[in-house]
Structures are given as C-alpha cells and as structure tokens.
Amino acid sequence: MSRSQSEPVASGSEPVLVVRGLKRAFGGVRAVDGVDLTIGAGEFVSIIGPNGSGKSTTVNLISGVLTPDSGEILLHGKRIRPGRPEAAAVAGIARTFQNGRVFGNMTVRENVDVGLHTTLRASRPLRALSALPLLRWIPLLAEFALALVPTPAVRAERREIAARIDTQLARFGERLTPRAENSAHTLSYANRRRTEIARALALEPHLLLLDEPAAGMNQTETAEIGRQLAELKAQGQTVLLVEHKMDLIHDLSDRVLVLDEGHVIAEGTPDEVLADPRVIEAYLGRSRAVRSPAAGSSVDARTAHDVQHSAADSAPGTSIDPAAAAGASGRTDALDATVAHSTGGTSVSARPIAVARTEGKVAADAGQ
Ligand code: ADP
Ligand code: MG
Predict the structure, then answer these.
(1) pTM of the predicted model, to two decimals?
(2) Could you tell me if 311 and 320 are in contact, meaning their C-beta atoms sit under 8 angstroms apart?
(3) Which domain holds residue 321?
(4) Is residue 55 included in any domain, yes or no?
C-alpha cells in the first residue's frame, strides 16, 4: 500500500485531530487496543471493520463519552480532557450516535438547539464561574435573568442561533424544514437521524464524528445522505465517518482505517484497503459456514453477535424482526462490497441468521 496516498491531506499544516495510543477495555475485552489516528484539515477519514472491532468505542473515546484507559487525544494540538463530552464539544468536536439520539418530546428545532448551549456567549455570562461549585449559582442566576429580560446582545444571539438552525435544517431539503416545529417522535427514522446530524453540524464543529449515519436507511435514503456528506466535504468539513456501507466509504473517503479487534490492521485509500487481504480476512475470517458457489453461492459470515449488534443499530429502542433488521443493517453491504472488490465482482451473498433476542438486549445496545 502506498503510504504517500494515504497520508493526511494537510500533512504540512497542523492536523485537526491526533490520537495516540488510545486504549479502552471492558472487563477482559480490549475494545480499542492502541489506536493511532491523525486527521488533517478538511480531510474525510473513514473507519470500517467487522462488528465489535472497536469503531464505536473509538468514536466514544474521541468525543469524551468514554474515558480511555490510556492514550491521548489532541484537537488542533491541544490535549482534550478525557471522558468529558462537554469539553470535547467546546473544543469543537461534534458527533452523532450509532443508535440515533433525539428527544422525542421536543421539536425538531429544539433538538438542534439543544446542542448549542455550549456556544452561547451573551445568553450565558460569567461562564467561567460554572466550574466553581460554590459560585455556580451566579452564572445560573444571570442566565435566568437574561432569559426573562433579554438584552439587545442576547436577542441578537438568539437570532443568530435561529438562523444557524434554519441553515442546518435546510441542508436536508424539504425533509426537516417543514417539520421544524413538529415533535421528534412524529418523525420517520431517517428524519430522526437527519435531525441528529443537523444538531451536530449546528455546532459548526472543527471535527464531525458520524457513527453509522446511514444504518437502517434504505438505498434511496443512503444515496441522499451520501450527497449531503459529499456537500459537507466540498465545504471543507473535517469528518471521521464510521460506516458499513461501502459505496459511501468508497465515494467519500480520502483515507480509510480498518479496525479489527481494537487494532488498526490497514490504512489507505478506499481502493487500497478494499483490496487488502488482511481486510478481506477480517470480514470473512470468522465465517461460521462457507458453502461453495456451486452449492448455492452463499457465504454466511455473520455471527449471532453480529446480528444482535446490527439489529439494534437499525431501529434503536424498538422491537425488531432480527432477520429483517440484519438484512437492513448494512453488514451485508460491507461484506458484499469487500468481497466484490476482492474478487473482481464475483457474486457472493451474505445470508442473515435469525437469532433470539430480547428488548433488554436492545436497550443495552442502545447505550453504546
Ligand atoms: P463496533 O462499533 O466496531 O461494532 P464497539 O466499539 O461497539 O464495536 O465494541 C467493541 C467491543 O467492545 C465489542 O466486543 C463490544 O461488545 C465491547 N463493548 C463496547 N461497549 C461496551 C460496553 N459499554 N460494555 C461492555 N463491552 C462493550
Ligand atoms: Mg458500532
């Protein structure tokens, strides 16, 4: 693999993100086991890998949702306080969740607005005092007073925020703007995911982390998200994308990292990594059953673990038909695309396995 092609775009200037030696274990499971990652300004980097390879954990560590066991994360050269999502947001990192997180009883506009409180200046005076337990009440009182009697500066800030929200909603054409005042629980699954992306973008982040934004979306919706991400890329947004859908990865990524069992096993352009034998092995190596093409052209590379993950990814918090959900999860897309790239187009299909699962499992997964 040619290193020159896979180096960060802005290798001359200071990278936006540097991750060094990132590790996080859960009990005996080394979810992320020494990940290094650098993203240049305006670069679009993707992470792929089989289910359970540590992709979401990596995103959770970078965004401060999880605390690393070791390693460091620097944004524009400044170390981010580990395990503090608010510190990451203030520093300029915004993210979406694999399982989609919107507040059902809030409107679409409020859902986008909720991410913006960290950016308020005029409406949240004396913010530095918030860090001091004994004096915390002073900024709260000031904020409350300004909410009741807004100054011209507060009114101007509110207008600026409203315009910012409108801009992000408009990014999705007529999908969200006409529904801006509707409760999020009335939205389709795809619109809930779009709302979450709009919320992250309204922060005008230096780095946008997207954890499977197209999971559970059909082909048309996936293509639409692809166009919106391409537009973001053209606007110079720095992005770290986790995705299973190889068409998106292939069309958008400047560079792709492949994770397996918490390690980066390959890195390069999309074409380079998809042709890499280690990547193919990572996707197919744990096959439980492989039948020859003559016996039905079916490769079954999914474990029960994969299906459980995928089912929860597809429709968080709701009851899912595991077989249907597995089919819609994108895991098959990933496998098919990887195999297609590696075999020069030989047709191999992945067949979902029905597994018993419970609402409890869905709830547990939704917390990832
Ligand atoms: P991916 O996003 O690549 O599918 P994850 O990062 O979600 O993988 O998970 C990596 C590994 O860490 C898996 O074995 C998963 O079961 C485990 N894991 C992730 N989050 C937790 C958690 N909160 N508690 C226990 N184990 C976890
Ligand atoms: Mg994940």
Answers:
(1) 0.75
(2) yes
(3) 272-366
(4) no
